UniProtKB/TrEMBL annotation:
<feature type="domain" description="Glycoside hydrolase family 38 central">
    <location>
        <begin position="152"/>
        <end position="226"/>
    </location>
</feature>
<protein>
    <recommendedName>
        <fullName>Alpha-mannosidase</fullName>
        <ecNumber>3.2.1.-</ecNumber>
    </recommendedName>
</protein>
<dbReference type="InterPro" id="IPR028995">
    <property type="entry name" value="Glyco_hydro_57/38_cen_sf"/>
</dbReference>
<dbReference type="InterPro" id="IPR015341">
    <property type="entry name" value="Glyco_hydro_38_cen"/>
</dbReference>
<dbReference type="InterPro" id="IPR013780">
    <property type="entry name" value="Glyco_hydro_b"/>
</dbReference>
<dbReference type="GO" id="GO:0046872">
    <property type="term" value="F:metal ion binding"/>
</dbReference>
<keyword id="KW-0325">Glycoprotein</keyword>
<keyword id="KW-0862">Zinc</keyword>
<dbReference type="InterPro" id="IPR011682">
    <property type="entry name" value="Glyco_hydro_38_C"/>
</dbReference>
<dbReference type="InterPro" id="IPR041147">
    <property type="entry name" value="GH38_C"/>
</dbReference>
<dbReference type="GO" id="GO:0030246">
    <property type="term" value="F:carbohydrate binding"/>
</dbReference>
<dbReference type="InterPro" id="IPR011330">
    <property type="entry name" value="Glyco_hydro/deAcase_b/a-brl"/>
</dbReference>
<dbReference type="Pfam" id="PF17677">
    <property type="entry name" value="Glyco_hydro38C2"/>
</dbReference>
<keyword id="KW-0378">Hydrolase</keyword>
<keyword id="KW-1015">Disulfide bond</keyword>
<dbReference type="InterPro" id="IPR050843">
    <property type="entry name" value="Glycosyl_Hydrlase_38"/>
</dbReference>
<dbReference type="InterPro" id="IPR037094">
    <property type="entry name" value="Glyco_hydro_38_cen_sf"/>
</dbReference>
Length: 821
């Protein structure tokens, strides 16, 4: 039996021993011990028969089995306290049968006297462990990747159901913005609010939810609940924005007349609000909301019907814009899903994207007006489009510091003229064949929703030479490639930005050959990385990984790919960043738009698993294959996904700033709300720019607001997070501060009570109850940098690297929340 220890783990290298938590692993997963102690009504375990007149009387046999199991577990853990987890998945459907048998076991075992049994809780158990005054070993690495047998690596679920993972991520970012707008407008328990979306997101965090290890009909239910929650929050966002844009003309929002629409299917180029005819003198108004605490310049794009449009900002200045043809791959994806979404084919399909750069203040919005260029006497810049064929040597894209030069072989030279970074980058696709339990191996373990067990890998290449389509313009450049019949890719560079955006469409994954497939992309450089790379933990600390090696045990590698796959953080947490590696001169970073699995299986290469479609169950409880299909008008085909990842190469030691700041932008995309107007009156009659912060203030570059939420009692929950680890960046891994008065300039703060992270108790009370654990080895207490107490007069919050501080703020003026610009 494997050795199991109770231990104290270091949760953060920035906080050292101050972040230690009591952790452990049980010998029987989270189930009862061996010996027959399962008591669901249909379980085969023997009941405790204590009627001596019956032939199946078995009290002593059951007591002996109990004591044997208890002693066996006690022999592999420290102290004389052990915990049994009496239950597992799908149990307690009839709780009476469980408690009746446990009552009997506790009674007769305690009469026997060899061990003492009692009903307990994790907190009682932990207190008992702590009271023994034991010295505990310290574990500094995490538990990933996990395997329950030689070929049973639980690394498939990092990517399983990538569409649901993306939906949860998208709704999480939307929820953060919606809660902010709910606060500005004032929370309503009767009108639209964010409660339904909060509930659906909370349910989706179930360990068999966003991980993708549920049955298909359950995944459908999660998505349906998210959609219902979004619909309610969408109304709240529209009404709050209407209140804000009209707040110059009156107080209160009861008489708001502005109607805003949003576009949840914008990723597949479907946005009825922007697909309007502007030829008859109407203007399209776009209000762009920024939920981040610093000012932001970014490119937005949405579909339009006419290529002849012009864009003006809130100062009525014409700004640079670009018309980009919508690729056929997106048109097909759009029309198919809109048909499913509406139950009918859309009346008209737009041919163009309109793209332009917006500038938005922190916790605020800016307004842009789109009109007919013919009427305005101006024109948008159309993208120049041409085909790059194999007989030509190279093609260069990019405007500004970053340039990519593509060769006929489809690899690229990456050159940043500002940082003098140069690197060869080759991007490719492959698929792992899902093991189907029919090989010569004695272990019939299949690849499935939980398990990643590949049976070989195959490159994915076009059947014939496919040319690149290059689109250039004043805002961005794109390189389009049809990788295969079911993979389409766009490589995109924005003017003034120094990262590469890669957008992909993958699916339907073909399975006509009877083989399930797990699709991955590889980004290969010439960097010498010595088997070492880094992945994030919960979107916070980055953890060092070494291929085929663990620091705290001797690793036997049975599955070279699956055994080295890691989550882009634990897949059930939704503020993740990505993966990077480095050599002695450069660091290469990849950020993702959803939780997924990946690794560096070859030096200088990063691999991301994008999609999975498998035909057999992996025997971990799902009891069906991970074979997602979409049915429209009785025609079913495999799921197609659309997504993005981003990469950048920096001089050594300079990549953290992009990973942290741009990672926040991925999680909190700009929120777009559309309206229409006759003529050009909007800019004169509405508030066109807004920020809830003091006009001279923005958050420091190393701080993010994780939560701004009005509570039922009118108080406000505020969470502030330092984004950098200790030593991660020479300028930003330092103590910083936030001025609460400037976050709420139009309200008077009466009290700011600091709370625990979960906000269920005041921090001072929590600190009194915190258990201090003795550990093996050095007893010298490590000095840890933490923010100091908050002065109730100055109301300045200090934040040390990686610190999150939570406050419940009580305002003296709990009146109507109208934030006039």
């Amino acid at each position: 039996m494997r050795k199991v220890l109770k231990l104290s783990g270091k949760g953060s290298k920035s906080f050292g021993s101050s972040a230690q938590i009591f952790a452990g692993a049980f010998p029987e997963n989270y189930e009862p011990p061996p010996g027959g102690f399962y008591y669901e009504v249909n379980d085969p375990s023997p009941v405790v028969q204590d009627d001596i007149n019956l032939f199946d009387y078995n009290v002593q046999e059951r007591v002996d089995a109990f004591v044997t199991a208890a002693v066996s577990q006690a022999n592999i853990t420290r102290t004389n306290h052990i915990m049994w987890t009496m239950g597992t998945d799908f149990k307690y459907q009839y709780a009476h049968s469980w408690f009746r048998q446990m009552d009997k076991l506790i009674h007769y075992v305690n009469m026997d006297g060899r061990v003492n049994a009692l009903y307990s809780t994790p907190s009682i158990y932990t207190d008992a462990k702590h009271a023994t005054n034991e010295h505990w070993p310290v574990k500094t690495e995490d538990f990933f990747p996990y395997a329950d047998r030689a070929n049973g690596y639980w690394t498939g679920y990092y990517t399983s159901r990538p569409a649901l993972k993306r939906y949860v991520r998208m709704m999480s970012g939307y929820y953060l913005a919606a809660r902010q707008l709910e606060f500005y407008n004032g929370r309503s328990n009767t009108g639209p609010n964010t409660d339904s979306l909060a509930d659906s997101l909370a349910i989706a965090q179930h360990h068999d939810g966003v991980t993708g290890t549920e049955k298909q009909h359950v995944a459908n239910d999660y998505a349906k609940r998210l959609s219902i929650g979004y619909t309610e929050a969408e109304k709240l966002v529209a009404s709050s924005l209407a209140c804000l844009v009209e707040s110059a003309s009156h107080t209160g929002c009861q008489r708001s007349t502005t109607k805003f629409q949003q576009c949840p299917l914008l990723n597949i180029s479907y946005c009825p609000a922007s697909e309007v005819d502007l030829s008859q003198g109407r203007n399209l108004i776009v209000v762009v909301y920024n939920s981040l605490g610093w000012a932001r310049d970014d490119v937005i794009q949405f579909p339009v019907l006419d290529e002849n449009v012009t864009v003006h900002d809130s100062e009525k200045r014409e700004i640079l814009s670009q018309i980009i043809p919508i690729a056929d791959a997106f048109t097909g994806l759009r029309n198919s899903h809109v048909n499913a979404y509406l139950g009918r084919t859309p009346a008209e399909t737009p041919k163009y994207w309109l793209a332009f750069t917006v500038s938005v203040p922190p916790f605020g919005f800016s307004t842009y007006s789109i009109s007919s260029a013919k009427r305005a006497g101006a024109r948008s810049s159309k993208s120049s489009v041409y085909t790059f064929r194999s007989e030509k040597s190279t093609v260069e894209v990019g405007q500004g510091n970053l340039m990519l030069t593509f060769s006929a072989k489809k690899d690229a030279n990456y050159v940043n003229n500002r940082s003098s970074v140069k690197e060869s980058v080759e991007q490719s696709f492959s698929f792992y064949s899902g093991y189907n339990g029919t090989g010569n191996d004695k272990d019939p373990q299949n690849s499935g929703a939980y398990i990643f067990r590949p049976n070989g890998t195959s490159p994915i290449k076009p059947k014939s030479q496919v040319p690149l389509t290059v689109m250039r313009g004043p805002v961005l450049d794109e390189v389009h490639q049809q990788v295969s019949e079911w993979i389409y890719q766009i490589t995109r560079l924005y003017k003034g930005r120094e990262h590469v955006e890669v957008e992909f469409i993958v699916g339907p994954i073909p399975v006509e050959d009877g083989i399930g497939k797990e699709v991955a992309t590889q980004i290969t450089t010439t960097m010498e990385t010595n088997k070492t790379f880094y992945t994030d933990s919960n979107g916070r600390d980055f953890i060092k990984r070494i291929r085929d090696y663990r620091t705290d045990w001797d690793l036997e590698v049975n599955q070279p790919s699956a055994g080295n796959y890691y989550p882009r953080d634990v897949a059930i947490i939704f503020i993740n960043l990505g993966i990077y590696f480095q050599d002695d001169k450069k660091e290469f970073s990849v950020l993702v738009d959803r939780a997924l699995g990946g690794s560096s299986l070859v030096d200088g290469q990063i691999e991301l698993m994008l999609h999975r479609r498998l035909l057999l169950d992996d025997s971990r409880g799902v009891a069906e294959a991970l074979n997602e299909t979409v049915c429209v008008l009785d025609q079913c085909k495999g799921l197609t996904i659309q997504g993005k990842y981003y990469f950048r190469i920096d001089p050594i030691g300079e990549g953290a700033k992009w990973r942290r700041s741009f990672g926040q932008e991925i999680y909190s995309p700009l929120l777009l709300a559309f309206s229409e107007e006759d003529g050009d009156k909007w800019m004169n009659t509405h508030v066109t720019t807004f920020s809830s912060f003091d006009s001279s203030y923005s958050l420091p570059d190393n701080v993010a607001v994780l939560t701004l939420q009005e509570l039922d009692d009118g108080k406000v929950l505020l969470r502030l997070a330092h984004l950098y680890e200790m030593g991660e960046d020479k300028d930003l891994s330092v103590m910083t501060s936030v001025e609460l008065k400037k976050l709420f300039p139009k309200k008077k703060i009466g009290k700011a009570a600091e709370m625990s992270l979960s906000a269920n108790q005041e921090r001072a009370e929590m600190e009194k109850k915190r258990l201090v654990w003795k550990t093996e080895g050095s007893s010298r207490k490590q000095a840890v940098l933490r923010g100091g107490p908050v002065d109730p007069a100055k109301l300045v919050v200090e934040l040390a690297p990686m610190e999150i501080r939570t406050f419940v703020i009580d305002f003296d003026d709990k009146g109507h929340h109208v934030f006039a610009a």
